[in-house]
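User: I'm curious what two different proteins look like when written out as structure tokens. Can you demonstrate?

Assistant: Sure. I'll show them one after the other, since each token string lines up with its own sequence. Here's the first protein:
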Amino acid sequence: MAEPPAEDSTDPKLTLNRRAFIKGVIAAGAVATSASYLFRGSGALLGQPSLPGSVERLITLNVNGQVRRVDVLKQETLATTLRYKLGLTGTKLGCDRAECGACTVLIDDVPHYSCSVLTHTVRARRVVTIEGLASATGTLHPVQQAVVDEQGFQCAFCMPGFVMATVGFLKTHPNPTRAELAHGISGNLCRCQDYNKILTAMMRGAEYMRRA
């Protein structure tokens, strides 16, 4: 008995049907994923709380005075969220293990290494990054202006962390001595080793803040 002829994979109709089938599978998967994502984090919309032990991924953050909704993994750090989810790349990732201070941000006015803070823990708290220091009209913060005036950095990779640490320190120590300020921001490291110029710029920033 003769066997039926094999399908010709080069047949345009067959190729078109396969393409349509693949597109349909992808579209169906996208719809299913979107639906599961929507209802996974929308307990409030359905009037039901999240299951015990579950972690809501779509959360609300207060960053630089703005309310932002963002999809966050339960193990995701604040530095990752700020840089790669919210586009706030002024927060630098240096060591990524709480040693260099390049990722320093203010959380409720207190400096923190954002690479070692889980994003889920800062809900209902105020986060400020280097982008949030300038005024709405574009006027630089006094510490930022001091950096410009004193040209206090070389490569400036560490600059955002130093500025944020200084701003946080000056909120509770507005009139520090040079030694006090050096101790207050000693958790930040400079790969260019230009600490003398950095400290001079930060002291000028303290002076500008007292004038403001």
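Here's a second, unrelated protein for contrast:
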Amino acid sequence: MDRLLVMAASACFLVAIIRTLLAMRARVFTPGIFSFIAIACGFLLQTAFLWIRGHAIGRCPITNLFEVFVFLAWSIVLTYMVVGPAYRLSLMGAFTAPLVFVIQAFALLAPVDVRHQVRTPANSWLEFHASISMIAYGAFALACVAGLMYLLQERQLKTHQLHSMFRHLPPLHDLFAALTRLLWFGFVLYTAGLVSGFFTGQPLPLAKMIAAITVWLLYAAILQGRHLFRLPPRQVAVLCVVAFTAAVSVLWGINFVSQQIPA
């Protein structure tokens, strides 16, 4: 029954998407409060699912890929709700909702919600490692969204084909500053998650270690390129999109709960 909450949350994000598409079709785009409320309702439903599922299994609800993807979607919206208004990215919801909807739709449609039959005591270090790493993924996802917004605005400026939504995009300098902060925020959280994995007292599967370290090195390289080699903002924006796509593609390799340890 808790899956119904995820379905309802997905419906809220779909409503936000439809509203954006209708506004774009009418060529009069205004972010408004409607999309924000729809996303906020989706976030509350996601939170309710995580609370109910977590209470049922007696631990952080990331024991299978279904829960991992829902937690990832929740982390993205959490970062948007907290960080977005601080950077005045009023248009970010129009880009965030489709990403979250796709992630949750995949989780609902794919046969990945496999419940473990045996319950064991929760490992506090493992819980911290998994949850903080997933929240870092949420920050990386929002950096990807900011990168897409940067590329869209840059293209509109170059082609002089200004859509009505262009007026609601922040200046390129401010947008790139927000992107950089999101990268650092996610990188610090991901580093904390990576280090905490060595304190779980559990064996570390080689494949998961390689996948996790690869993601860490990828984002470290982007930050190094930005601050040491002065990569142009456009290249950093492109790399943010590529990095998040690559990180999500290996998410199953960073399945934070080992199959050898029943949940």
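A detail about the second structure: Confidence is low (pLDDT under 50) at residues 256-263.
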